[in-house]
Amino acid sequence: LTCAAEHLFNLKFAAKELSRNSKKCDKEEKAEKAKIKKAIQKGNMEVARIHAENAIRQKNQAINFLRMSARVDAVAARVQTAVTMGKVTKSMAGVVKSMDATLKSMNLEKISALMDKFEHQFETLDVQTQQMEDTMSSTTTLTTPQNQVDMLLQEMADEAGLDLNMELPQGQTGSVGTSVASAEQ
Q1: Residue 132: helix, strand or coil by DSSP?
Q2: What is the largest CA-CA distance in the chain?
Q3: Do the Cβ atoms of 181 and 41 come closer than 8 Å?
Q4: Measured between alpha carbons, how far apart are the two ends of the chain, in Å?
């Protein structure tokens, strides 16, 4: 049980670390989105596209870290159940030995007290099993849509209040973006 408890600690630690990495990627995605807006406002579509690709990459990394964290968390829950079951089994073995001795003496008060303890052990096991099932059912997978870069560019342009015209040749993008930005101001 000691080895399993140590593995349980390591699993929980790994799940937290993965969760932290997911949050870090979320922050980096937001920073990239801010850079997209600035690049669109300056009319530099090539730089905006690069930042959009970076933002989407960060988003996907965040999702992957979160997915892996959930999987590690599920494994930790299973190990927790195994550790708990081991403890309960050990307790039940002790209770059964006590019951044998008590039944031989036929002391009804002791039998009643032992049965209460036995039932309490099973209630504890039910609560922990339910917690594990809740954890397992809450792990879900996420999917991302196609054409994310173009959609993100359009979304950032809309938030910045700019008109994004992606059909223009690269040479004309700077002047149109600047004129739209100055018209907005």
Answers
A1: helix
A2: 98
A3: yes
A4: 68
